[in-house]
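Thought: the user wants the 3D structure for the chain below. I'll pass the sequence to the structure tool as-is, report back what it returns, then summarize two notable features.
Action: structure_tool
Action Input:
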Amino acid sequence: MSSKLADESVLEFIFEVKSMIAELNPVLTRTFKELGLTCVQADALMALERLGPVTLKELATHLVAESGHPSRLIGRLDAEGLVTRAASPQDGRAVLITLTARGADLAAAARAARAPLLAEFAERFTEGRLDDATTLVREVRNQLEGH
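Observation:
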């Protein structure tokens, strides 16, 4: 493939990824708004539900969408009674973040609200195609991390 065609292919791929995110974000925003959550808050609650008690650093690695400081996000969730923060028994300097009962209920509600969107994707695309697309996007992201 010529360099010009390769450049065009890369730019088209980037455009499609950006466009997909631009289309997906409003759908998720509407979905989680009905629960009184932002996308980032819902992501954090669902990550905590999946991971269990974690440090802020561990949680931050699972919050790709968080553009600000994760500590501010956790501060807001704590102020709303959705999480608690406590010293780690293994490392007194680390703080463990845990869902409260209300936070766990909202995490479950967010997961349930998101389920139809995931089901629609699963219905439209075979698992192998999604796996291939995920692998490709991950490879591109990993390459970009090196720059």
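Final Answer: Structure generated. The beta strands are 54-55, 83-87, 95-99. Residues 35 and 42 are 9 Å apart (CA to CA).
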